[in-house]
Here is the input.
Amino acid sequence: MLPPSPQSPATSYAPLPPLHLFSSSTKPTQLLLPPSHKPPRRFYHQIGTQTSSSPAISSSSSSSSHSHDAILLDLLRQGKTEEAYQLYSSFPHIPDSTSLSRLLSQLAYQRSPTSLSRAQSLVRRLRDARLLRRLDSNSLGLLAVAAAKSGAASYSLSIIHSMLRSGYLPHVKSWSAVISALSSTGDPVCSFDALRLVLRRIAAADPSLTADSLPDTAAFNAALNAASNLGDAELVDQLLDKMPVYEAKPDVITYNVLIKLFARAERGDLLVFVLERIIRSNLVPCITTFHSLVAAFVGLGDLRTAEKLVQSLREGRLDICHLLRAEIPSRSKEEETSSILNKLADIAGDDAPPLLPKTYSPDTRIYAGAGEDGGGGFRPDEGLLDALADVCVRAAFFRKALEIVACMEENGIAPKKTKYKRIYVEMHSRMFTSKHASPARKARRSERKRAAEAFKFWLGLPNSYYGSEWRLEPIMEDD
Here is the structure.
């Protein structure tokens, strides 16, 4: 059971203390607390409601202030956001709730660096005056989404925290966008802290007020993606088990995330069962499903299966699951299996593999021109090479990633080094600590570390290769 979150005074606007999802033993804890026996707290979706105890600005009651507020609102309704902001900036008083919320919403909607800076300034002014309740939840939610999509994940999280501290529930599209941003910008653990906090507040709230805040499939997918990036199969399993509680059904994106998880765990023998699970769930695989499968097989070094999959797609075959199953015995079995991973794959056993619901034609983003194998194979273009490198870096297949970026450079394609550097830094802390690593994987740890050093050299990060001639082959022996 998780300890109760520290309660902040209603008038405090200091950041919440960090909430840790993992214990010191790194074993995931439960996301949800048991039902609370305390009376439900009151939550409101409209922050503009004023109470008798709210601070008041004496000038706001003057007729002049009301007149200025009316002009401000009229400019906003005409879509003249720039003129409206300039007028707001000249006010000695703080405008009314309707004008402020409308102004913040329109600034957030613009999503430019200037508009977001102005939105931050507006929120800071109200926070300092302890008048944040003059903003409604829609405007704050829009700001959180805009900040998240603009790369300001930490600031977007602070907006969600401010709403929750004030007793307001953000819309699911707002808080899930923040979780998605946190998981993709290097702080997946923090994204789970945010998820846990939101779910706790939902559980404590009046059910009649939580409809717009309950997690949906997209929200769970954001959390699942973060868990997959961490390689945490237990947490993925826990999140999937919680989806029915909120009537959220897995979609194709949900299962595409599982493909990435199995690639990180080097369980290529389970990939076909994810595809089968999609079909048995009466879902239609998307082309991204096959992008992910091809990238996973290439990252695992199983080029034969990757090429066979691509060729089967070109031929318009529907029995791809059968073909992929036939490849399982030809691949070496893991010496150690994970019951959690097997559960996630939902292995069908002796059931006949299902047929694809339709045919798929590899698009030009993935395959272009004749192949290198006498015209019978495939040649990936920039889009596929970038996707392959992305998967390989995330899965710590650094030798394969180096081969891919070398191929890109040989073909005149500039690798996205900045992106790969960000991914490496994000994943570095858990690079070699997967709880589901097999003995065979652990035995390759030294070689993987040498490849990681070579990749860091290519990225320009501190590494053990400075002063040595860089090359793809290992140049360091085991200690």
Notes: The first helix runs from residue 63 to 77.
